[in-house]
């Protein structure tokens, strides 16, 4: 059963501009391993983290650093979660974080792939509407 869905898109160029305007942004959002990645990868990871937060109900107190987007040897993305994020996932869902996050990773990976491909806002918006219609619109708007 899906009880929370989070969707987010991130424009790579705007994200790059934000990082230039706010030099401390990278250190607040990304783990050291994530911070070393190229801009497009950071934007995709930011979108994935936003989607995860929305799926968890976007509560106050979640630390961006408690969710790391990692890839296996074949490039498959997943979340490594700990601390505030793991606690919220277990609390809200009544299951282990790993069981719940399988669904979230799929949604976030789709969004990250679209962001990485540089699709325009119209296409990204259409995808968001399609996912909302499938899931009953469970994701929160914004961010």
How is this structure best described in words?
This protein has 143 residues and is mainly alpha-helical. The protein has one domain: 4'-phosphopantetheinyl transferase domain (Ribosomal Protein L22, Chain A, Alpha-Beta Complex). It has seven helices and two strands. Strands 1-2 form a two-stranded antiparallel ribbon. The two termini are 25 Å apart.
Task: Give the arrangement of secondary structure elements.
Blueprint: H1 12-21, H2 25-29, H3 32-35, H4 39-55, E1 67-71, E2 77-81, H5 83-93, H6 97-117, H7 121-135
Antiparallel strand pairs: 1-2
Helix pairs in contact: 1-4, 4-6
What do the pLDDT scores average to?
74
Q: Largest beta sheet, briefly?
A: 2 strands, antiparallel
| Count, helices | 7
Count of individual beta strands: 2
The CATH superfamily is known as 4'-phosphopantetheinyl transferase domain
Return Rg in Å: 14 Å
CATH class: Alpha Beta
Structural class label: mainly alpha
How many structurally independent domains?
1
Q: In CATH terms, what is the architecture?
A: Alpha-Beta Complex
How would the global form be characterised?
Answer: globular
The ordered string of helix (H) and strand (E) elements is HHHHEEHHH
Q: Indicate the percent of residues in helices.
A: 55-70%
CATH topology, by name, is: Ribosomal Protein L22, Chain A
Low-confidence stretches: 138-143
Strand order of the largest sheet: 1-2
Strand content: 5-15%
Provide a compact summary of the structure.
It is built from 7 helices and 2 strands, in the order ααααββααα. It is mainly alpha-helical. The chain has a two-stranded antiparallel sheet.
């Amino acid at each position: 059963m899906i009880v929370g869905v989070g969707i987010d898109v991130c424009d790579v160029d705007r994200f790059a501009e934000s990082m230039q305007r706010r030099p401390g942004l990278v250190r607040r959002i990304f783990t050291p391993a994530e911070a070393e990645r190229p801009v497009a990868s950071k934007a995709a990871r930011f979108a994935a983290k936003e989607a995860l937060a929305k799926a968890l109900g976007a509560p106050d107190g979640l630390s961006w650093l408690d969710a790391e987007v990692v890839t296996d040897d074949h490039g498959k993305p997943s979340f490594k979660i700990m601390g505030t994020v793991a606690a919220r996932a277990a609390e809200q869902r009544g299951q282990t974080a790993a069981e719940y996050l399988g669904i979230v990773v799929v949604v976030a990976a789709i969004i990250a792939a679209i962001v990485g491909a540089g699709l325009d806002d119209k296409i990204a918006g259409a995808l968001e509407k399609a996912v909302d219609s499938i899931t009953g619109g469970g994701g929160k708007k914004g961010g």
